[in-house]
Amino acid sequence: MLSVLLPARNSAATLPVALEGLFAQRGAPAFEIVCVDDASTDDTPRVLVEAAKADSRLVVVRGEGRGLVAALQLGLGRCRGDIVARMDADDLVHPDRLRLQAEALARDPSVAAVGSLVRCFPRPLSAGLTRLEEWLDSVVSKEECRTARFIEAPLVHPSMTFRRSAVEAVGGFRDETWAEDWDLQLRLLQAGYGLCKVPEVLLWWRDSPARLTRTGAAYAPGRMIELRAHHLARGPLRGRLFDLWGAGPTGKRLARALETRGLRPRRFIDVAPDKRVARGLDVLPPDALGPPGEALVVCAVGAAGAREEIRADLAGRGYSEGEDYLFAA
């Protein structure tokens, strides 16, 4: 059996269409929809009562209004399925989503969670959201998701379908005052599980000024730096010499967060000739880099296009992404 985990809070305006898309799934395994009404004060409870009367696959759970992570953990505890698909109450879903993602998980037992390509709406999008959508849709395979894991969360949370056993094995959803979905994906990858995507658009991801990723303190840029530093320290930087490419604000913020975890780069690397010292360390040009494998190069440059330029430079030096260098911005 498959369970759809759908938290909802004051979602009466969008929830009916989201549920309609789930009820209309084609060729999917038997499934239930576990909707956690997280103490809504609008017509969400009425919408859910009517929908549950019309379709018994909908299970309504009453939350206490303690926030998304608590609602997710509450709902996960009520899910009966071995496979759990996330969905948000304001998004739209392709009618073949559950079938395609369940099939992808069945094909590869090493994969803990499957996402999909996404389309943000309403359009037109801002320049930043356009770049994010393009990046998300460029990260598809297991290797791409692993390599890119410190740039952003590889899988859009409401597009995820995951093995319940894997998520529970790494501690489930946790409230660490940063993005719960990215934190979960990094823990799954660190534990040796794979992530990948069905290379089709299966989710339409709604953008709005009130979206939690825009308004919630856990998703602020500073918290994302802390999240990266936490998982870098526990993963690829553990016991390893490293250089930090990027002596600008982004690189220095990451260095500061790593220092609080007892880690300090050997030096900074930067193409800007006017940068000589950053956080008391030398700033050297890329030509100062040693041979691949001498030190892991952590690239943290926020400027648009910088990632592509750095990747081309390091590839020309024989560096392998994911082994000899990784991006953290």
List keywords for this structure.
elongated, alpha/beta, 14 strands, Spore Coat Polysaccharide Biosynthesis Protein SpsA, Chain A, eight-stranded mixed sheet, 22% strand, six-stranded mixed sheet, 329 residues, Rossmann fold
Concise summary:
This protein is α/β, with parallel strands linked by helices and 329 residues long. Helix content is 35%, strand content 22%.
Present the secondary structure layout.
Blueprint (H helix, E strand, L loop, with lengths): L1 E7 L6 H9 L7 E7 L6 H11 L3 E5 L5 H11 L4 E4 L5 E2 L3 H11 L3 E11 L5 H10 L5 H6 L13 E3 H6 L10 H11 L3 E13 L5 H4 L5 H14 L7 E4 L3 H11 L8 E2 L7 E2 L2 E4 L11 E4 L6 H11 L8 E3 L2
Parallel strand pairs: 1-2, 1-4, 2-3, 6-8, 9-10, 9-13, 10-12, 13-14
Antiparallel strand pairs: 4-7, 5-8, 6-7, 11-12
Helix pairs in contact: 10-11
